[in-house]
Amino acid sequence: MQYLVGFAIALFIALTGVGAGTITVPVLVLFLDVPAPVAVGIGLTFSAVVKLILAPSQILRGNVAWRTLGLMLLGGAPGVLIGSLFLKQLVHAGSQNLLNGLLGAVLVCTASWQLAFSFRPMREKAAVRDRGFLLPWLMLPVGAEVGFSSAGAGALGSAALLSLTTLTPAQVVGTDILFGFALSLLGSGAHWYSSPFSQPLLLQLIAGGVLGAIGGTLLSTHIPRRPLRLALWVWLMILGGQLIFNSYEVWSGTHRDSTMAVQAASHS
Fold first, then answer.
1. CA-to-CA distance for 236 and 26, rounded, in angstroms?
2. Which of 63, 118, 199, 240 would be 107's cystine partner, CB 3.0–4.6 Å?
């Protein structure tokens, strides 16, 4: 089952360009019953491995705008450490149910924003002014989101580059891949240091993911990306909603049990 999950995740990454962490965490939590902190760490590491395969080709093709990447990391690097620290504090506080709800909320917000951005009218590149100086400030919360949920680096990073810079589409892709790789590497290192990991599960996902990435790369020229991305974002929004609903159900059940216990104690 784990090999199949890794295969499917990598296949959709190759076909749609949606980040590994964005897909991996809700799938692991909802379908494999992996605890959220472990799922986030695995998602970050899985994302780093996938982007490690893609990054060298982008560098060799000259698709990386290094100055822009530096501006993104100026905010994104400390952000991912802040997000990882926040997740660690929630785990130590025993707020597993709250964590699931927050992860669901992050996923719903990211998917909603991406769907809205997908239908936004495209502007001519000449009409876009270079406002790269804003990137460190915008990438700080993006990095925090990545450190906390492993989602958002690719989707939000590429949107920011398209909106704030004059980079070509190829440069946007290359720079965003390097940005996502750096954040995933930093985040996975922080999680490996502070949280338990399921190494066998990670290796099984990577083994299946290699085949999925190859298959997705071969199919990507024959399958239109835009409709598949839209369908995937809708599906991820549903998964995020399911995480929120499950969290609410657990909270309401706990609240109901505690209320009944208080009432029983008062009548005795």
1. 8
2. 240
